[in-house]
Design goal:
The complex is a heterodimer. Chain A is α/β, with parallel strands linked by helices. Chain B has 4 helices and no strands. In chain B, helix 1 packs across helix 4. The chains are: A alpha/beta, B mainly alpha. At the A-B interface, loops of A face helix 2 of B.
Chain lengths: 210, 85
């Protein structure tokens, strides 16, 4: 039986982007999450105008996924065999509040459709899936803290059941004060290509690196 | 009318977060959806909100939307005829 391994991982936090543990971009001059994400988008030369229409947490997840998926070869893997399993602690609370503020005053009641559509964390999975044409199993979980054992077990189960041949996993979180993303790519590997075995302990170790 | 078209360009870019587009990039006769600016269904809803919020115009019939939002010029003509603000 083929093993399942972590081929690549990315952290985005404190206005820095790391790929496989190495710092690849930082912009400490931009003091807001929004301006940092825009600066990172430009830096990585991503061409996807819809990025600017996303809420901040979707931009964060999208950006981390872009970094991880750059140069990943998906040979012999069908779009329906690529899954996404993400989690966070705040769902889309920051965006939910923006929407709430737009409907508080009945005399100035103009809810924005483009804000409302982002009041579910699953939409982030949708944005990544649309860009990369992933059509496999997906799930988004809410935990107080990143439950690496649960997420890795769930992903392993998808592999064992033959539902996926590759999967994006991770933790994309945003609060009023802070944000962080940790995204990793898991796929089958054989002896020719080494990548460390996908376990909850390894995911935790990589996640806690920064 | 020309002034209204220029105002609409700025409002649309802001409301729809069209970061990579400058007002001068928008041809007032070009279709807003599909080709042209390539807007989508959520953008259409945002334009409906924009008309109501900024000009006091409610679009009750979705079929009207297709004609009104065909281009910037058709939007400007509709606003000129129906504006309450």
């Amino acid at each position: 039986m083929k093993q399942v391994g972590i081929k690549r991982y990315c952290h985005v936090k404190n206005n820095k982007v790391y790929l496989d543990g190495a710092l690849i971009f930082e912009d400490v001059q931009n003091d807001t999450m929004k301006s940092f994400l825009k600066s990172a988008y430009r830096n990585f030369k991503i061409k996807y105008p819809k990025f600017f229409k996303m809420d901040e947490i979707s931009k964060l997840g999208f950006l981390a996924a872009e970094v991880v998926l750059q140069n990943i070869q998906k040979n012999n893997i069908r779009e329906s065999e690529i899954g996404i399993v993400l989690a966070n602690s705040q769902s889309t609370l920051v965006t939910d509040k923006v929407h709430q503020e737009s409907i508080n005053d009945l005399n100035n009641y103009y809810p924005s459709p483009s804000v409302f559509v982002y009041t579910l964390p699953n939409i982030m999975i949708g944005e990544i899936s649309i860009k990369h044409k992933f059509r496999g199993e997906n799930a988004f979980y809410i935990f107080e803290h990143f439950n690496t054992e649960f997420v890795s077990d769930f992903i392993d189960m998808l592999f064992t059941d033959g539902k996926v041949k590759a999967c994006l996993g991770g933790w994309i979180d945003q609060s009023e004060k802070d944000y962080e993303a940790f995204v990793y790519w898991v796929e089958h590997y054989d002896n020719k290509v080494f990548c460390p075995e996908h376990t909850g302990a390894l995911v935790r170790k990589l996640y806690e690196k920064f | 009318m020309e002034e209204l078209v220029e105002q609409l360009k700025v409002q649309i870019i802001k409301q729809l977060n069209l970061e990579d587009i400058e007002p001068e990039d928008i041809d007032p006769d070009e279709p807003l959806f599909g080709e042209g600016l390539g807007l989508d269904s959520i953008d259409a809803l945002e334009l409906i909100v924009l008309l109501e919020k900024e000009y006091g115009i409610k679009i009750e019939n979705p079929k009207d939307g297709q004609k009104v939002f065909f281009s910037l010029n058709t939007m400007a003509e509709f606003i000129t005829e129906h504006r309450k603000k």
